[in-house]
Design a protein that fits this description.
Number of strands: 22
Number of helices: 19
Strand order of the largest sheet: 3-2-6-1-7
Bound molecules: S-adenosyl-L-homocysteine
Strand content: 15-25%
CATH architecture of the largest domain: 3-Layer(aba) Sandwich
Largest sheet: 5 strands, parallel
């Protein structure tokens, strides 16, 4: 069967959450993705591993590829019997040359579908607290190119009609041309007191909004660079009441998350939800242990095990993967009691349909010892602890002192993530980063290893360091890193709360 099809998909205005469900499905099933400059590249993470991902971006006047070549590329890829997703910023049919691409596909007999996206003129004012229509101000709304060459004799835009004939006017690609746009509007009868907003990088943490009136906006917005939307009309005044996004507690803050790639998302999503610009800089990779000998031994003696203490989500995952790989299942845990350190660990255990029998109130080893002292005489009890290769030995030692037979097994290994992202390192040096977060001692040690002590010295004073708990803080302080944000509760929500209290 011939698979050839091209989906012309609107990726939305910037916030990756603003793509449609259908658009996302097209990313997931594509053999080839051809995307533009304004597409948020984090969406590409959803592509198949083997997908061919091609950038054909346009940035201002710098075209990486001419439109004819892009058209040809799309057609050629589709002819190779491929599912092609052509991803464009905003909506594909709004100033995106999507129409031209569709016509070319039609001419070449390639089947295509259009997946609309949220266009910048609707989304970016929304994120700036400006509704594009509002009953008391306007019932008309226009989308206009601001790109038109002002020296052109014959304007495609009928300034006489739109200046006073439409309530809300939005101009795409109009940053350079703003003086001409303003001049035309005033010349054709729009009051020079009409409110105006210029919104750059709307719906992203880099969003910048400048407001004014027609007579002063050119001066006020002169530092604004593309991409920006200009919105003209009385609706702009509603921003005074409705500015919801730029007032989020962490808006404007750039925060580095140093957890492993697999574990970063929960924390990153929380911070992004609070308006932060999150840079993921994984310092840890989780891998299999050098061998499974000790873990396998532990699994073999489950029948005679009284407790398993899980100290991390990774410990839970690697324990169960190995158990299942060896042909076992959760029935092998019958009669074994389960202790979880920390709520995330407990949650992961529950995902395997297993009850957690003990969850110490504090998420450090010391608290576990206290709890066990209360709930059970550990003399002779067999405890299994699936852990990382470099875990602290305090907990097993203390449990042994209580008479327990503790078997520590290496369930996974944490290694230094291969290399740091050079662009993030530059952001640190340039003072763009506000906070670096540490969620374990390994994140501290590995962060220092990856960035290097010399580099660290250059930005140490410019950023704040945040730590999830006392052990992590101690490790940081031993490495001469001053921790100014400390979680009261040693969890990701606890750390997030401390960050908001300190800088929000
Ligand atoms: N198809 C796109 C528009 C492409 S033209 C859409 O439907 O949104 C490119 C112009 O869109 C930019 O010059 C800018 O005016 C506007 N634009 C796109 N994304 C934007 C954003 N996040 N913030 C502000 N303007 C944006």
């Amino acid at each position: 069967m011939n698979r050839s099809i091209v989906y012309l998909v609107g990726a939305g205005p910037g916030d990756p959450g603003l793509i449609t469900i259908k658009g996302m499905a097209c990313i997931k099933k594509a053999d080839v993705i051809i995307y533009d400059h304004l597409v948020n590249t984090s969406l590409l993470k959803e592509a198949k591993n083997e997908a061919d991902i091609i950038y054909v971006g346009k940035q201002g006047n710098k075209h990486t590829m001419e439109q004819e070549d892009i058209n040809r590329l799309i057609v050629n890829k589709a002819k190779e019997d491929k599912i092609v997703t052509r991803l464009k910023g905003g909506d594909p049919f709004v100033f995106g040359r999507g129409g031209e691409e569709a016509v070319f596909l039609k001419e070449n007999n390639i089947p295509f579908e259009i997946v609309p996206g949220i266009t910048a003129a609707i989304a970016t004012p929304a994120y700036a607290g400006i509704p594009v229509t509002h009953r008391s101000c306007t019932s008309t709304f226009g989308l206009i190119t601001g790109h038109e060459d002002p020296t052109k004799d014959q304007s495609e835009i009928d300034w006489g009609k739109i200046s006073t004939g439409i309530g809300t006017l939005t101009f795409y690609m109009g940053v350079k041309n703003l003086p001409n746009i303003v001049e035309q509007l005033i010349k054709h009868g729009r009051s020079k007191d009409t409110p105006v907003a210029v919104i750059r990088c709307g719906t992203t943490p880099a969003q910048q909004t400048v407001t004014g009136i027609l007579s002063n906006i050119v001066e006020k917005a002169k530092k604004i660079k593309p991409p920006a939307i200009t919105i003209v009309g009385e609706v702009v005044k509603l921003r005074d009441q409705l500015n919801w996004y730029e007032t989020k507690p962490l808006f404007g803050k750039t925060i580095i998350v140093t957890r492993s790639r697999d574990q970063a998302s929960e924390f990153s999503e929380k911070l992004i939800g609070l308006g932060a610009n999150v840079l993921e800089f994984p310092t840890i990779s989780i891998t299999n242990p050098d061998n499974f000998d000790s873990l396998d031994k532990g699994i073999k003696r489950l029948e005679s095990t009284d407790w398993i203490i899980f100290t991390s989500v990774n410990g839970v995952d690697s324990f169960f993967h190995r158990l299942f790989n060896l042909g076992g299942d959760i029935r092998d845990l019958k009669g074994v009691k389960i202790c979880a350190i920390g709520p995330a660990t407990a949650e992961r255990i529950k995902e395997f349909h297993i009850r957690v029998d003990c969850q110490p109130p504090k998420y450090v080893a010391e608290s576990v010892v206290e709890v066990f002292k209360k709930i059970e005489n550990l003399r002779g009890k067999r405890i299994l602890m699936p852990r990382a290769d470099i875990a602290r030995s305090y907990l097993p030692e203390e449990l042994q002192k209580l008479g327990a037979d503790v078997m520590e097994v290496v369930a996974y290994k944490t290694v230094v993530a291969s290399n740091g992202d050079a662009a993030i390192l530059e952001s640190l040096k340039d003072g763009v980063v506000d906070i670096v977060t540490f969620t374990s001692s390994s994140t501290v040690r590995n962060f220092v290893k990856i960035v290097g002590e010399d580099n660290l010295a250059t930005f140490k004073e410019k950023v704040k360091f945040a730590s999830i708990g006392p052990i992590t803080t101690k490790t940081a302080e031993e490495m001469d890193i001053e921790v100014s944000i400390k979680a009261d509760e040693y969890t990701i929500p606890g750390l997030t709360k401390a960050i908001v209290e300190r800088v929000g």
